[in-house]
């Protein structure tokens, strides 16, 4: 299965870097990532839409590689949400040092008040940071389920799987393929329920398979062993 990819949103941003910050946030991020089953940076980059090079920069504390503090904050918030760890404690490590290095020297009291030339760039950076945050939110929003196909008369019904119901114990990412065609892909909140029907097979891919509970025709059903590429394929009898 091919995952959808999007163009790097920072490709055309001017090369104006955030100041070098002496804050260790990378060890916390990496430790949280390694506790998950989906510990690959490449897989996380595909699921969060955060370019891999910026995930690596966060874990290596190379915060000066970000174009500006607004982008650093947006990508750090998205990564923390995915890892299910607190964002504010890490951001508070970054913010005081960054503010000290980016603050302008005080002007003499006798000088006439002037409008700072940084006002417009800072407003533009803040606006673009808000746009990045909205983009991350909508990019990870679950896609609506397609309408079910019309039912055939009983005598024309082809052989098929019984109804498969999915129950979600935790928030997770899920991909569902029906008879070889992707029918759903996105984040699913805890407590949700999905019901699927297939003629030949249902293939599931999940960031947290242990959080899935399956019911086949109303009876508990265990996930089969995963395939080589980590998918769970349920075949029709």
Number of strands: 8
Structural class, from secondary structure content?
A: alpha+beta
Strand content: 15-25%
The amount of helix comes to: 25-40%
Average pLDDT reading: 78
Secondary structure tally, helices:
6
Helix and strand sequence: HHHHHHEEEEEEEE
Q: What form results from the Cα inertia axes?
A: elongated
- Can you list the strand order of the major beta sheet? 4-1-6-7
Give me some keywords for this one.
single chain; 237 residues; alpha+beta; 434 Repressor (Amino-terminal Domain); 2 domains; 8 strands; disordered N terminus
Element layout with pairings:
Layout: H1 26-34, H2 41-48, H3 52-59, H4 69-83, H5 88-102, H6 119-139, E1 164-168, E2 172-178, E3 181-188, E4 193-196, E5 201-206, E6 212-216, E7 219-221, E8 232-235
Antiparallel strand pairs: 1-4, 1-6, 2-3, 2-5, 5-8, 6-7
Task: Describe the fold and architecture.
Helix content is 32%, strand content 18%. By secondary structure, the protein is of the alpha+beta class. The chain has 2 domains: 26-103 and 125-139, 434 Repressor (Amino-terminal Domain), CATH 1.10.260; 158-235, no CATH class. The strands form 2 sheets. It has a 4-stranded antiparallel β-sheet with strand order 4-1-6-7, with no helix packed on it. The protein has a 4-stranded antiparallel β-sheet with strand order 3-2-5-8, with no helix packed on it. β2 and β3 form a beta hairpin. α4 runs parallel beside α6. The longest helix is centred in the middle third of the chain and has 21 residues, at 119-139. The two termini are 24 Å apart.
């Amino acid at each position: 299965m091919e995952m959808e990819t999007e163009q790097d949103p920072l490709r055309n941003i001017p090369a104006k870097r955030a100041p070098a910050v002496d804050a260790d946030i990378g060890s916390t991020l990496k430790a949280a990532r390694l506790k998950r089953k989906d510990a690959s940076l490449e897989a996380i980059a595909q699921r969060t839409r955060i370019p891999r090079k910026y995930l690596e920069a966060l874990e290596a504390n190379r915060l000066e590689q970000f174009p500006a503090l607004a982008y650093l904050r947006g990508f750090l918030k998205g990564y923390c949400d995915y890892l299910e760890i607190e964002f504010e404690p890490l951001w508070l490590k970054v913010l005081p040092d960054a503010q000290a290095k980016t603050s302008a020297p005080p002007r003499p009291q006798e000088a006439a008040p002037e409008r700072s030339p940084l006002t417009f760039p800072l407003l533009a950076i803040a606006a673009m940071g808000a746009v990045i945050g909205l983009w991350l939110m909508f990019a990870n929003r679950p896609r609506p389920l397609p309408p079910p196909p019309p039912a055939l008369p009983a005598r024309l019904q082809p052989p098929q799987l019984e109804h498969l119901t999915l129950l979600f114990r935790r928030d997770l990412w899920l991909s569902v393929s029906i008879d070889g065609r992707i029918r759903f892909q996105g984040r699913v909140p805890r407590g949700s329920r999905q019901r699927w029907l297939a003629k030949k097979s249902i293939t599931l891919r999940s960031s947290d398979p242990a959080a899935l509970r399956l019911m086949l025709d109303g009876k508990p059903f265990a996930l089969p062993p995963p395939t080589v590429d980590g998918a769970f394929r349920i075949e029709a009898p």
